[in-house]
Amino acid sequence: MNVDSNVNYDDVIPNNVNLSDNRKLQRAIREWHPKFMKWWWDRGPEGFQNSDVFLRTAISVDSSGWATYAYVRMPEYKWGIFLAPQRREPTIHFGDKLGEDTWESVPGEHRNDLRRLIVTQADTEPGSVEQQQKLGYSSPSLYDMRNLFQVNVEEARHLWAMVYLLQQFFGRDGREEAEELLVRHSGSADAPRILTTFNEPILDWLDFFCFAMFTDRDGKYQLGALAESAFNPLSRTTQFMLTEEAFHLFVGETGVGRTIRRTAQLMKEVPSEDVTTVEGIPLNLIQKYVNYWYSVSLDLFGSEDSSNAASFFASSLKGRFGEGNRKKYPDASCKEAWYMIKALDENGNDCNIEVPMRRAMNAVLRDSYIDDCNRAVRRWNKVLEDEDISFRMQLPSDRFNRKIGIHATHHADPDGSYLTKEEWERRKYEWVPSEKEKAYVRSVMVPVKEAGRFANWITPPNRGISGKPIDFEYVRL
């Protein structure tokens, strides 16, 4: 993507924000773009930048343009800037400003809070690309490699979407924040990503699938909450991001499901049911990965009792997921409502904590997320049922392995029962993967580069991408 003073921006950067007529924004992009490209070459998918990849590119927001497919080299991908079509009357539909007009510019009194929300969301997008940088080397198939790269370029496009908001609406502060997004790096000791989960290493494909299943699903709910915002450009930007995010969740859920199915098949082929003898991944080890990534993803919702969440809701900056559904949420202001949280007291006994509903908005958002995760787990268990395997996957208690919120002060097992610190340290590898177990999973990640073939630890998908067969050459190496 060559961006200079004479470029036709509508050709180079697909957009519906009148970029070609916006000289100020063009100048900001000209300064930021070379730094983005350096970041992409340095921190993007390693070893495959010159490969032709069968990628989906959004060139418009209509049904014919938001998903066009072609072979593309990733550095030449067109990272566009899009606002979803206006989907409702431009009036605020929750919080203290209920019924007022939505905002097309940033109100001064909400400038810092909006910038903080946008920067925090923006920082996750390049963070996940950095976490997954080396996974291409151990891809179980060209189909999966292509899906990884699709997720990567779309996370980078989501970075562009957030940077557009910062550069267009926040002046010098926004331009400086856009620069900092390329300075912080996942796992850096000096300049780590803002949220801890995006500094966790992703060293194998089961990590990646669980990350896409659970952590990207958190992204779905965070974006959905921001899509309700009274700041109309933020609302419409995140609405369009959600159309792409759905594929990321598909990659995660089906990736874990295909791993579970292959393990179940191998269990029936091996007399001892020990699938490690044939380089399979045991079901109880998959469960440990689920326990880990689900619990660290719950922390991304923040504290269950949060004054910031209350302020964001009251100011109409961030709503609940599906806020406009008044059958689900009949109370649009939540001034008098309360929320009950089941917790543990200082002695490890069950107790209930009553929190004003506005302060509990993180927990309400998390509840929607948990329901969604449970639906996916039921689909995994249907796989096990179909394969006539008695083992069942499950989500651990929301008290398990928590570092943020009211559950962070105690240790609990996956059933939610209290553990002393000593018990947790002694038993934690019963429930989360040990270094030895993670090393085993990495050892079976043998790359497969022949179209239509798959590593032994995972089954092929039910169908290919965009009508292509499973044995299509999704990446030309």
Detailed description of the structure:
The protein is mostly helical and 477 residues long. The chain has one domain (9-476): Ribonucleotide Reductase, subunit A (Orthogonal Bundle). It is 44% helix and 7% strand. It has helices at residues 9-12, 23-43, 111-131, 142-169, 171-180, 205-226, 232-269, 283-298, 307-314, 361-386, 421-427, 435-443, and strands at 52-57, 68-73, 338-344, 350-356, 411-412, 418-419, 475-476. The strands form 3 sheets. The chain has a 3-stranded antiparallel beta sheet with strand order 2-1-7. Helix 3 packs antiparallel against helix 4 (142-169), helix 4 (142-169) packs antiparallel against helix 5 and helix 6 (205-226) packs across helix 10 (361-386). The chain starts with 8 loop residues before the first helix and ends with a strand.
For the biggest sheet, the summary is: 3 strands, antiparallel
- Order of strands in the sheet with the most strands? 2-1-7
Q: What's the rounded overall pLDDT mean?
A: 95
SSE sequence, one letter per element = HHEEHHHHHHHEEHEEHHE
Structural Rg: 23 Å
Could you state the CATH homologous superfamily? Ribonucleotide Reductase, subunit A
Number of strands: 7
